[in-house]
């Protein structure tokens, strides 16, 4: 009887895909068994070749392979067990450890559709690990498979950050289109369930800002004091990626402020309609007060009731009440143009 082992799209060691980049920047597919051989013959990327290994954290074999075959810093291993929180980008044992956040591959831009990718970058290797498929990582893989060349692991990281900024920009563009539709309905005085949709959009954008905003700050801090093995060209690529990310986050912040203003306008419109409704109800109550008062008095059936024996008593009372109601209605509505 054979036992089926769940690999979650990865091999027996948890590797989803692996690429070896030649000194010319061309990518070649590599499996997990060839990684120790490459590391044994490589001296800190002396010939310019490096690896990109992408692992699945859903596979329990991933952690065993990390500890058995790869000498990874403890900060990277701790990041694999951490919850989705703020972004980290720091040096650990002269290696760059990054924890970046991104939306899921099949995300509908919900506030909960955010995942984490942990990266460990050294002069001759990039190790990335994730629990669920993420959009920007898949875009980076598509670029590698299409033949795009990468000269160093840091350039690979810069391309990933640019893809991440592109994903965030796409979310902002689609959210802006939805906000435009809501704003058009608002200008037409059509108050519906748009407040709920606006609240969901605002929560999504604020959550993305909270998760992604620390990245440019951490990146600029790294650029001020880069490790010795990061070249000037790599520093320039990282700086450009940080600027693109800052622009995307700034656009997101602007959209959040716009959503906030629309929410305030919707709240003001709802309050105005509520106030108008209460005013009408109050006036109707006041107009009906004389009729109810007179009806109550004449319904007491006691002696001395005025006009009780007059043939025109009912007509006189009705005419008086109609005239009094008309005067009160004119005083209430006559001077209101709206």
TrEMBL record:
<keyword id="KW-1133">Transmembrane helix</keyword>
<feature type="transmembrane region" description="Helical">
    <location>
        <begin position="311"/>
        <end position="333"/>
    </location>
</feature>
<dbReference type="InterPro" id="IPR002523">
    <property type="entry name" value="MgTranspt_CorA/ZnTranspt_ZntB"/>
</dbReference>
<keyword id="KW-0997">Cell inner membrane</keyword>
<feature type="transmembrane region" description="Helical">
    <location>
        <begin position="278"/>
        <end position="299"/>
    </location>
</feature>
<keyword id="KW-0862">Zinc</keyword>
<keyword id="KW-0812">Transmembrane</keyword>
<dbReference type="InterPro" id="IPR045861">
    <property type="entry name" value="CorA_cytoplasmic_dom"/>
</dbReference>
<dbReference type="Pfam" id="PF01544">
    <property type="entry name" value="CorA"/>
</dbReference>
<protein>
    <submittedName>
        <fullName>Transporter</fullName>
    </submittedName>
</protein>
<comment type="similarity">
    <text>Belongs to the CorA metal ion transporter (MIT) (TC 1.A.35) family.</text>
</comment>
<keyword id="KW-0406">Ion transport</keyword>
<keyword id="KW-0472">Membrane</keyword>
<keyword id="KW-1003">Cell membrane</keyword>
<dbReference type="InterPro" id="IPR045863">
    <property type="entry name" value="CorA_TM1_TM2"/>
</dbReference>
<keyword id="KW-0813">Transport</keyword>
């Amino acid at each position: 009887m054979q036992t089926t082992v769940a690999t979650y799209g990865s091999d027996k060691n948890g590797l989803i895909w692996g690429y070896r980049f030649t000194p010319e920047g061309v990518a070649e597919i590599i499996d997990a068994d060839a990684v120790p051989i490459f590391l044994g013959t490589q001296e800190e990327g002396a010939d310019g070749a490096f690896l990109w290994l992408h692992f699945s954290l859903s596979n329990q074999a991933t952690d065993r392979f990390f500890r058995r075959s790869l000498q990874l810093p403890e900060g990277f291993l701790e990041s694999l067990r951490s919850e989705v929180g703020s972004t980290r980008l720091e040096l650990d044992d002269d290696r760059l450890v990054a924890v970046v956040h991104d939306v899921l591959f099949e995300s509908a831009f919900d506030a909960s559709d955010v995942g984490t990718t942990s990266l460990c970058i050294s002069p001759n290797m990039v190790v990335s690990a994730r629990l669920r498929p993420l959009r920007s990582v898949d875009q980076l893989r598509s670029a590698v498979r299409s033949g795009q060349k990468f000269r160093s692991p840091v350039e690979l990281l810069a391309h990933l950050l640019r893809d991440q900024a592109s994903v965030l920009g796409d979310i902002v563009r689609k959210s802006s289109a939805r906000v435009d539709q809501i704003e058009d309905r608002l200008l037409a005085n059509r108050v519906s369930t748009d407040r709920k949709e606006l609240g969901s959009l605002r929560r999504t954008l604020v959550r993305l800002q909270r998760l992604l905003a620390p990245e440019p700050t951490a990146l600029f801090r790294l650029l001020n004091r880069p490790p010795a093995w990061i070249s000037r060209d790599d520093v320039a690529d990282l700086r450009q990626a940080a600027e693109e990310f800052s622009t995307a986050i700034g656009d997101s912040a602007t959209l959040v402020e716009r959503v906030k203003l629309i929410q305030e306008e919707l709240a003001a419109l709802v309050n105005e309609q509520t106030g108008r409704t209460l005013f009408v109800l109050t006036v109707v109550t006041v107009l009906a007060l004389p009729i109810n008062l007179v009806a109550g008095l004449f319904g007491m059936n006691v002696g001395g009731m005025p006009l009780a024996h007059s043939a025109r008593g009912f007509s006189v009372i009705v005419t008086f009440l109609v005239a009094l109601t008309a005067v009160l209605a004119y005083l209430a509505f006559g001077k209101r143009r709206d």
